[in-house]
Amino acid sequence: MDRSAAKKSASQFLYPSIEPFDQRMMPVGDGHRVYVEQCGNPNGVPVVVLHGGPGGGCSPAMRRYFDPSYYRVILFDQRGCGRSRPHASIECNTTWDLVADIELIRETLGISKWLVFGGSWGATLGLIYSITHPERAIKLILRGVFLMTKAELDWFYGGGAGAFWPDVWSKFVGIIPEDERDDLIKAYHRRLFSGDQMMETRYARMWASWENTLASIANDGPGGESPAEYARAFARLENHYFTNAGFLEHDGWIEANIGKIADIPGVIVQGRYDMICPPSAAYRLHAQWPASRISIVPRAGHALSEPGITAELVRSLDSFRNSRKP
């Protein structure tokens, strides 16, 4: 199935496009302003949408997973990416800054509790936020689980995924000198933060291409280059967070603290052939989280837009809606 066919078949599960009823640039401190939008039912059940990356930003397509008559959907671009400013900035940009931003958004919008919906890095952030503020999460719906561990980074940047995509891996590795290839995150860091914008953009596009190529099971090779502005924010922020191990106190922090959300319901949607975030992490999370349910989607990879992933996420959201009807 090619990419256009995959997108077309996925669309049958989605709700019609809806426009925001509220858009704002919210000052969050430290010189950062984050873009926040609300759409759907202003009086509906609130759900916060956490995008991937770090550095991916939100897109209008993310609104379409939610029944607009039932959900009050809050999307925002995390610090440094999308429409948030300053763009591609890593200053005062840590996991704990993002957790504080989520709380500020919740308080500013007058929300007591909400659903937490996130994929990939958004799943990571959703777990960390809920562990930190368990009283604020009604339920978690997570896709493509990433637990921010060294083993996961080693898989993706140390040759594990490259064994399945040797042609693409050789390009990702090939622009780095041989004597630096033992730590590709560190090697790319030198270039993504070199101060030379042309160099930063070149390496950012290669960084983004490696990940984007492996996102969908429908992909059979690299697509076109990402726009320079998007790639630079995406690559710099991801690399910054990965260089700092997600700013967590120790490796395995999420699993060590999962007991704090043991009683909060959760749904985990995971592609069987996810090359970016292999299913082992999702399965391990489910085994340690009594209130969770896992759905491993056959013939699916990592991307939010894949038909099986889309169908299961919409089904989970609709099931939540239907369970709360009188």
Considering the chains and any ligands shown, give keywords for the structure.
2 domains, 17% strand, eight-stranded mixed beta sheet, disordered N terminus, 38% helix, alpha/beta, Rossmann fold, 326 residues
CATH superfamily of the largest domain: Alpha/Beta hydrolase fold, catalytic domain
Provide the succession of SSEs: HEEEEHEHEHHHHHHEHEH
Number of domains: 2
Strand content: 15-25%
The N- and C-terminal alpha carbons lie at a distance of 42 Å
Task: Provide mean pLDDT, rounded.
Answer: 95
Provide the CATH top-level class of the largest domain. Answer: Alpha Beta
Strand order of the largest sheet: 1-2-4-3-5-6-7-8
Structural class category: alpha/beta
Instruction: Specify the number of helices.
Output: 11
> How would you sum up the global shape?
globular
Biggest sheet overview:
8 strands, mixed
Q: What name does CATH use for the topology of the largest domain?
A: Rossmann fold
Q: Could you say what the CATH architecture of the largest domain is?
A: 3-Layer(aba) Sandwich
The count of strands amounts to 8
Q: Low-confidence parts, pLDDT < 50 over ≥5 residues?
A: 1-7
What is the radius of gyration?
19 Å
Helix % is: 25-40%
